[in-house]
């Protein structure tokens, strides 16, 4: 999967401690705009999970942040990322993050559920350990799927998505919050890099693990990339330092008070 999303999901949860709602996170303004439109679509839907249990927009209400992962049974990359998503869901369940899967290919051309595809989807979930809620296309979700050009696609939704209000206004607020959230994260990364005694070292570890647009395929490739920056560490040490880097970045974000966040966002996004 896009590993940047894992980092964003963790940091979005930290940002909610600042009084900043974490809606549809995205790494650039265009993606944030798409996510903002998604908020309107996901504010009212009705469907079922893979076992036939009813699911609607209230599924978002009790979690600070929901990662909606749109996948398909035929999609190799979708399936390969699911064990990682299952681990993420488990690790962050008590921190306000949930993952909801939307299986895009379990209906026929008439919109009826295909039992064979449903069974396949259940098997994939069981085999990959992706033991979080997976829903099927239903009323209110076809509009979302019509906007998806490929799978896997990942969206972020906050708990405010189903509280109504003017849809255009909701879009605008979601987009603005997304931009501010990303700017706070960028500020925290820059602060870590410049001020922490190991900031440059940690920055490059995070860069190649999560941030680089040319994602490394595995830890070995990350170590090779780090070598190009004069950083020579073992595989075991890499994992230790990666966790340290995330902890440092998290502590910077946790350290922001509500007032600090307001000052930062006002500074970065002047009226």
Protein architecture, described:
There is one protein chain. The strands form 2 sheets. The protein has a 4-stranded mixed β-sheet with strand order 5-4-3-6. A two-stranded antiparallel sheet has the order 1-2. The protein has helices at 3-15, 29-41, 76-92, 115-128, 142-146, 167-195, 199-211, 219-227, 235-255, 258-268; strands at residues 46-48, 54-56, 65-71, 97-103, 133-135, 153-158. It has 2 domains: 3-158, Glutaredoxin (3-Layer(aba) Sandwich); 179-268, no CATH class. It has 10 helices and 6 strands. By secondary structure, the chain is of the alpha/beta class.
The CA-CA distance between the termini, in Å, is 36 Å
CATH topology of the largest domain: Glutaredoxin
Shape, per Cα inertia axes: elongated
Strand/helix succession: HHEEEHEHEHEHHHHH
Main sheet: strands, sense, barrel: 4 strands, mixed
Instruction: Please identify, by name, the CATH architecture of the largest domain.
Output: 3-Layer(aba) Sandwich
What structural category arises from helix and sheet content? Answer: alpha/beta
Q: Give the amount of beta strand, in percent.
A: 5-15%
Q: How many domains, as an integer?
A: 2
Uncertain residue segments: 14-36, 164-169, 267-271
**Gyration radius, in Å:** 19 Å
Classify the helix fraction into a percent range: 40-55%
Average pLDDT level: 77
CATH class assignment of the largest domain: Alpha Beta
Number of helices: 10
In spatial order, strands of the major sheet run: 5-4-3-6
Task: Give the CATH H-level superfamily of the largest domain.
Answer: Glutaredoxin
Number of DSSP-assigned strands: 6
């Amino acid at each position: 999967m896009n590993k940047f999303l894992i980092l964003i999901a963790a940091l979005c949860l930290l940002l909610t401690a600042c009084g900043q709602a974490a809606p549809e996170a995205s790494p650039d303004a265009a993606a944030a705009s798409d996510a903002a439109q998604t908020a309107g679509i996901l504010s009212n839907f009705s469907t079922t999970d893979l076992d036939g249990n009813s699911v609607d927009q209230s599924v978002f209400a009790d979690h600070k942040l929901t990662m909606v992962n749109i996948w398909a049974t035929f999609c190799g990359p979708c399936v390969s990322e699911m064990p990682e998503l299952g681990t993420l869901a488990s690790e962050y369940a008590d921190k306000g993050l949930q993952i909801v899967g939307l299986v895009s290919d379990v209906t026929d051309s008439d919109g009826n559920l295909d039992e064979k595809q449903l069974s396949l989807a259940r098997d994939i979930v069981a085999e990959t350990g992706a033991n979080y809620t997976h829903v099927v296309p239903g009323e209110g979700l076809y509009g979302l799927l019509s906007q998806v050009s490929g799978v896997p696609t990942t969206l972020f939704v906050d708990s405010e998505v189903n509280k109504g209000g003017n849809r255009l206004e909701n879009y605008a607020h979601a987009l603005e919050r997304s931009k501010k959230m990303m700017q706070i994260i960028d500020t925290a990364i820059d602060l870590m890099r410049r001020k922490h005694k190991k900031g440059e070292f940690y920055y490059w570890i995070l860069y190649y693990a999560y941030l680089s647009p040319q994602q490394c395929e595995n830890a070995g490739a990350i170590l090779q990339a780090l070598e190009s920056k004069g950083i020579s560490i073992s595989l075991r040490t890499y994992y230790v330092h990666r966790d340290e880097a995330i902890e440092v970045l998290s502590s910077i974000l946790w350290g922001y008070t509500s007032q600090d966040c307001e000052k930062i966002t006002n500074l970065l996004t002047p009226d």
